[in-house]
Amino acid sequence: MKNIRPIKKAAAVILKILLIVFLVVTLNRIFMPKYITENEDGRITQEYYPAARYSDVLFAGSSIVYSAVDPQILWEHNGISSFVRGNASQTMWITYYMIEDALFDHKSDLVCIDTTFIKYDDDFVEEPSTRKSLDGMRLFPSKINCAFASMGEDEKLADYIVPLFRFHSRWKELTWDDIRYAWYLKPVTMNGYIRDDEIGPAETEDLTYAGDPEQVISPKNEEYLRKSIELCQKKGTQVMLFKAPSLSSNWSDALDAQIKAVADEYGITYINFDRYSRDIGLDYRQDTPDMGSHLNYTGAVKFSEYFGDYLADNYSLTDQRGSRYDRYWNKRIR
Amino acid sequence: MSFISVDFALFVTVALILYYVFPKDYRWVILLIASYVFYGQSGTDNFIYIAVTTVSAYAAAALIEQMRGRAEAYIRDAGKSLSKDDKKAYKQSAKKKQKIVLVLALLLNFGILAYVKYANLAIAHINLFRLTHFGSTDFIPFRSVLLPLGISFYTFQTMGYLIDIYYSKYGRERNFLKFALYVSFFPQIVQGPISRFGQLAPELFSPKDFDFSRIRSGFYRIMWGLFKKLVIADRLAGFVSGTMAQKETYRGFYLILAIFAYSMQIYGDFSGGIDVAAGVAEMFGIKLAENFERPFFSKSISEYWQRWHITLGTWFKDYIFYPLSVNKTVLRIGKSVREHKMPALGKRIPIYVPMLFVWALTGMWHGSEMRFVVWGLFNYVFIVLGTELAPLSEKICRILYLKEDDVIMKIYRAGKTFWLMSFLRLFDISADVGDAFTAFRYVFSGWGTFDIVNIYENLNLPMEDLIVAAIAIIIMFAVDMAARKGSVRLRIFSLPVPVQWVFLSLLIVAVSVFGYYGPGYDAASFIYGAF
To answer: Do B518 and A169 touch (CB under 8 A)?
Structure first.
């Protein structure tokens, strides 16, 4: 009997601490932006977890990827079940931690890494984009390390661990949706793909790159590119590098050559899909919403079909149509 | 490391775990290490200042006690071989030597304090004097001295200890490291309270068993301090500074509002910081001296100063006012005036003359600029006027059939004190003395165009923040009112657990949601942390 009192006391203390944690977590969920009607890419990270067990192929990269690769097309066309872990301005280091986070407890058959953001400097910091990538991430070491790698000088790790610290001033703009969707919201994206039906024709279809022909990949970008490849290979996951089609103004042949050299070093493939625009059938007068930077829905359909065929032909992927995946995809398909 | 940071919360958590894991006899060592780690975070250069104070005070105390011991032993050993007069003379001579040691230590430590606080101000005045009188542009360069963290607080605390040792109030701390802890105890080093050795040492060196209720109580107090600091003080800071910066525009009503808001701001800031310090100390089972006792309920300025920054007030009273009021010269002047047919004035000299010094020094303690000295002297004038006019006030009350303990009279007096103290703070929030008087002048203008219907239109504060600030201030005063009948926390803890949870949840929500912190806010600094 004597021993029961301390146990009861300890249980009461633990319960109190848990209640405080629950309160803070609830506040976090209420105050974090919901990204329902705009900036939907802010939802991609959190939408991955329930979809993870149905994602054999993982695409990782920036907004160029989440607007170009439509997993629904890959599913319908090739039976490939995939998810796009992409975010606006997603740097190579965020891409690495997205892959690390995904492979921590899930075996992917293939990871396709988009290298578009390798062109930026090591000191590239864009807090809103980092937040959109990280706020939905589960509180695992990958998130903490990713925050360390991505934070600007004025940012604090605590703000990433407890997003309430960052977003508490939203109390003035809270809506009923913030409370209604605090704990659950049906997926907004199609396994990471964000559909855009706008048409914003490009002024030119010239694919000659205007970036610095001498540009060298910065050390941090190269480090994380290599780490991403090594991580996949260590986990026994097939990996490839690609540059999704985009009329980006500051790409260069030099970057292509350097990425190709890294890919060769690890015995993997690198494809710059800009070189295959015509084969894909891309028409930048109608397949882009923003003068060629990203693809719109018609462009994404063309590219996804092309990319899906390529993946199905070149990697050992299972056509999951007719498997247990059907139920999931039947629910997800628009 | 700011009190308001995740780093500090983690630091305290680690320190607490280590503190309660270690055997009781060594817990003070954990506190000492924690204090020096905390202090080191403010800049390793600062160590030299606190080290000089610690070593010099420890050595001076040791020397004083040794001299006293030797003198007593000599007199005891000499027995009847010394006459009474010889013994007295020897004692006096020994006391004189002890006094020299004390004065040297005081000069050294207050000299350092004066140097770091006033050196650049003095240089500026010298340069200005040379420029205006001699046209010299050969300026003395400014010293690159940063104010070491909490130097005013630990210097006053340590010198108070030394004076107490000199007057044999208690025995000195023989363990140098324990003494170093007394000087540097981290929760109170940023902005006080200024503790007395007799009160703090038993708390530091007699550790208590772990008790979760103390952790809970300390946590509540910390959260309450953060509420006052982040929800009230920091929310009002922008409004106050913005309005004062544009006082030509925001005259009359808006300026008065800013002046009152500053009173709320500084109370929330300072007492909030003290609550955080006291809450952290309480988690270690250490009770710090209270620094506030509902000052805005004071019915006179002298009462106000007994309830605001109490430990500084008692320090000045004990170590400046009392010694000066029994000083031979002061008493002689008083006696002389009394004998020159001014008995009433003569009686007041031993009170008012030391008080003048106290207020000039209080002003200087608050800041190096002249406006702080003027602020101190205005306080002095109002206290003297309050004392001298008290009989007249009582007479008026009698004529109007008003009783001192009437609620209306209490509200009137508290309101009057609040007004006066708020307006005196104009010296605090103005750039200089002239600026303070200009602001005071502006209070009386701008009323012609004052539009009561559209008050909010011209207010330099978003409506949502205004509402939150108003509700928070009402809560703060309600809690202060409730505290008159005893600890509010103890009353909460006696409620059913679900009700306690409602209180705690509301406090956490209020601080975490409505607090002014995060990107764009400077929640890290405390106004009194700069002293």
So the answer is: yes
Statement to judge: residues B57 and B124 lie in one domain = yes
A82, pLDDT greater than 70? yes
Three-state SS at B248: coil
Average pLDDT for residues B494-508, to the nearest whole number?
A: 90
B348 domain-assigned: yes
Helix (H, G, I), strand (E, B) or coil at A44: helix
Number of other CB atoms surrounding residue A255 within 10 Å: 24
Helix, strand, or coil here: A105? coil
Q: Closest residue of B to A159, CA-based?
A: B518
- Of the partner residues B462, B504, B518, the one whose CB lies closest to the CB of residue A166: B518
Domain enclosing residue B100, as ranges: 6-207
Q: Measured between CB atoms, does A159 come within 8 Å of chain B?
A: yes
Nearest chain B Cα distance for residue A17, angstroms: 11
Q: At residue A91, does pLDDT exceed 70?
A: yes
As a whole number of angstroms, the distance between CA B268 and CA A157 comes to 28
Indicate whether B407 pLDDT > 90: no
Structure letter (DSSP) for residue A113: E
Same domain, B186 and B237: no
Contacts by B328-336 with C-beta closer than 8 Å and gap 24+? B330/B354
Q: Does residue B241 sit in the same domain as residue B360?
A: no
The answer to whether residue A5 scores a pLDDT higher than 90 is no
pLDDT for A334 = 64
Residues of B in Cβ contact (< 8 Å) with A165: 6, 512, 517-518
Strands A82-86 and A269-272: unpaired
Distance from CA of B468 to the nearest CA of A (A): 11
* B416 and B457 co-located in one domain: no
Sign of CA dihedral B436, B437, B439, B444: positive
User: Do B480 and B337 fall within a single domain?
Assistant: no
What's the CATH code of the domain at A118?
A: 3.40.50.1110
Q: Is the pLDDT of residue A123 over 90?
A: no
Whole-model pTM: value is: 0.84
Quick check: is A58 in a domain? yes
Whether residue A192 is contained in a domain is answered as yes
Pull the structure tokens for residue B33: 């290490």
Q: Establish if B219 touches chain A: CB-CB under 8 angstroms.
A: no
